[in-house]
Amino acid sequence: MSTRKDNLVVGLDIGTTKICAIVGNLTEEGLEIVGIGSSPSKGLRKGVVINIESTVGAIRQAVEEAELMAGCEIKSVFAGIAGGHIKGFNSQGVIAIKNREVNNDDIRRVIDAAKAIAIPMDREVIHILPQEFIIDDQDGIKEPLGMSGVRLEAKVHIVTGAVTSAQNIIKSCQRAGVDVADIVLEQLASSEAVLSADEKELGVALLDIGGGTSDLAIYVDGAIKHTAVLSIGGHHLTNDIAVGLRTPMAEAEEIKKKYGCCLSSMVGKDETIEVPSVGGREPRILSRQLLTEILEPRVEEIFSLVNREILRSGYEDLIASGVVITGGSAILPGMQELAEQIFNLPVRRGVPRDIGGITDVVNSPIFATGVGLVRYGSRNLQSQNFSIGQENVFDRVMRRMKEWFGEFF
Predict the structure, then answer these.
(1) DSSP for 54-96?
(2) Which structural domain range is residue 140 located in?
(3) What is the DSSP string of 117-167?
(4) Strand partners, 19
(5) Of 321, 364, 44, 56, the residue nearest 195 (C-alpha)
(6) Fewest CB within 10 A of the end CB: N or C in the chain?
């Protein structure tokens, strides 16, 4: 395998239920997935690291597996971040254009002006995503470079997260022996993998239902307009099954994967399932309908919360191409149908698209974030344009921490 090592990009999806490393190779034809490694994750809760030791172990295992498959050594990764602490909001900045023609320096300045807002000391900016530029009164400009005008405005979406959460992710990766090239918002990564350019233009809501969180991203006119992370996900479904059917968590997870369905009309009246009991008691035979009755209200609750978030964002009338659901929980039968009822919009399942290599393995909503991280990384390697904030994430975090402590001591 003659892959040039500098073209390898690695995405590390650090999730609540699994940690997954995906290696992509950038070729002329596009992105090829050449390696994948996955290990169960025990050290996270609701997308946030709560146990560094077990997270480090799981990252190491996933990375080694991916290295073995890709036949390469992994030095740095693009890591995903999620969790209820993530907040996204829109902002705008205005500057005067010095020599009447927009250059890179002007773009940098206007984006700096847009991010000049008060952000609490314990939070840091993870992304500044330009939505559109306005020159003199002409709006809807995506690429202002070289255009003439007197004033330049930028509308951006700013994503912030807790400094400590970002730090713990970086620390876990470094202890596991890999550097973090960048930290990427998970739903931003997933949308790189599963959404088409047409959908983003028309308006679309991406819902990534992971183990510990459900991540929402709304695109209108090709730009991201709203992001939100809800601390509820597939893990809650498993927990409900464990409590409702009085069975251990590991067994509940298996039952969910094997027999789970979240729409009662899809389940036959006489279908049964075997449920292992706790404490060595005999397994019981229960109706599959009972399992559906446990799952349906919880899934409905997740969709209702997301729907409320979409209404709150004010973009509900602009998402013409509907909702795309992805993430491990999207595989559950009935998800799509139930989502269509609640959102009153067309819904489809999102799987990674336009990739080569071992597509049969990664062709599942489970790997949307991992593949998206690789695509995000490869795009950033290609463009090498001004990444906002040239210092690496850890230095940025450390600097923020120093300032933060300086205020106290």
Answers:
(1) HHHHHHHHHHHHHHHHHTS---EEEEEE-STT-EEEEEEEEEE
(2) 87-160
(3) S---TTEEEEEEEEEEEEETTEEEES--TT-B-SEEEEEEEEEEEEHHHHH
(4) 14, 39
(5) 321
(6) C
Structural tokens at position 33: 């997935």
pLDDT tens for the chain, residues 1 to 409: 344 456 899 999 999 999 999 999 988 888 899 999 999 999 999 989 999 999 999 999 999 999 999 999 999 999 999 999 999 999 999 999 988 899 999 999 999 999 999 999 999 999 999 999 999 999 999 999 999 999 999 999 999 999 999 999 999 999 999 999 999 999 999 999 999 999 999 999 999 999 999 999 999 999 999 999 999 999 999 999 999 999 999 999 999 999 999 999 999 999 999 999 988 899 999 999 999 999 999 999 999 999 999 999 999 999 999 999 999 999 999 999 999 999 999 999 999 999 888 888 889 999 999 999 999 999 887 664 434 344 556 666 666 556 655 555 4
Pure H helices in 215-334: 234-244, 249-259, 288-313
Query: Phi first, then psi: what are they for 291, rounded to 5°?
Result: -60, -40
| In contact, 31 and 354? CB cutoff 8 Å | yes
* Number of domains making up the chain: 2
Same domain, 212 and 151: no
Residue 27 pairs in a beta bridge with: 30
Read off the amino acid at residue 356.
G
Q: What is the CATH number of the domain that holds 307?
A: 3.30.420.40
The answer to whether 388 touches 128, Cβ cutoff 8 Å, is yes
Task: Please give the span between the terminal C-alpha atoms of the chain, in angstroms, as a whole number.
Answer: 55
> In this structure, is residue 263 part of a structural domain?
yes
